[in-house]
Amino acid sequence: MIRSLFMRYGLIAAAVSAMALLGPVTQAGVMVSAESAPVAAALGHPTSVISIEPGQRDTAAEPLGVQAWPVPSRRSYHITASCQPYAAAIRRGAAAWAGLTEGAGTPVQCTNSYITGCGGGSNVVGCNWGSGQRIALFMRGVRDGALLAAHEFGHNWFGHSGFRCAGWGSAQEVMAPSMCG
Ligand SMILES: [Zn+2]
Q1: How many angstroms separate the alpha carbon of residue 154 from the centre of ligand 1?
Q2: In this structure, which residues have their CB less than 5 angstroms from ion ligand 1?
Q3: What is the pLDDT of residues 7-59, one digit of tens each?
Q4: Closest to 72 in 3D by CA, of 128, 2, 134, 126
Q5: What one-character DSSP code corresponds to residue 18?
Q6: Crossing angle, helix 145-154 and helix 87-94, to 10 degrees?
Q7: Quick check: 48 and 34 in contact, CB under 8 A?
Q8: If we measure between CA atoms, which residue out of 45, 66, 69, 44 comes closest to residue 155?
Q9: Ligand 1 centroid to 155 CA: how many Å?
């Protein structure tokens, strides 16, 4: 059952600046330790992803098309004024999930800096409070804003997967706890 793949629930809380100084070995260690921290689960539903290793991924991470992976229920969202510059990318991200439509529902806000109030952590680039009550995205903080949006929309239904870095290969990959470039 696909749900079981989403049972892991983590919050990555490592600083990009620290990672840049500490190098790749420590990056992996920080990720593992942050992933296993119970903070996010203990606080309920706020979830986040974080941008790590900025600029170091050399493969393009573009959606291959409309994925429309199955979800257990229908949801909707609307793009607020702060996200108008990023509306196209957000819509590409929303297309990852079947039954997710634009019009009402979850308000999507965009920030100009890392997101706070998401249950802890630093350099948080996305948050979904209350499994769809509200979503915030720091689109400029990531290379692939559509993937960030897809990830946060995914938290309407799912927690984090065991994948290390988010990608477009599968619903589980979208739900990795970290953006790696
Ligand atoms: Zn997340």
Answers
A1: 8
A2: 47, 49
A3: 333 333 333 333 333 223 222 222 222 233 322 222 223 455 554 444 444 34
A4: 2
A5: H
A6: 50
A7: no
A8: 45
A9: 7
Cα(84) to ligand 1 centroid in Å equals 22
154/162 Cα distance (integer angstroms): 15
**What does the DSSP assignment read for 94-153?**
HTTBTTEEESSSEEEEE-SS---SSSS-SSEEEEEETTTTEEEE-GGGSS-HHHHHHHHH
Q: From ligand 1's centre to the CA of 50, what distance in Å?
A: 8
Give 108 Cα–ligand 1 centroid separation in angstroms: 15
The dihedral over CA atoms of 165, 85, 118, 9, expressed in degrees to the nearest 10, equals -30
Give the alpha-carbon dihedral of 23, 162, 139, 115, to 10 degrees: -80
- pLDDT at residue 135 greater than cutoff 80: yes
CA distance 18 to 27: 9
CATH 3.40.50 correct for 2-179: no
Bridge partners (DSSP) listed for residue 77: 102, 106
* Ranges of each domain in the chain: 2-179
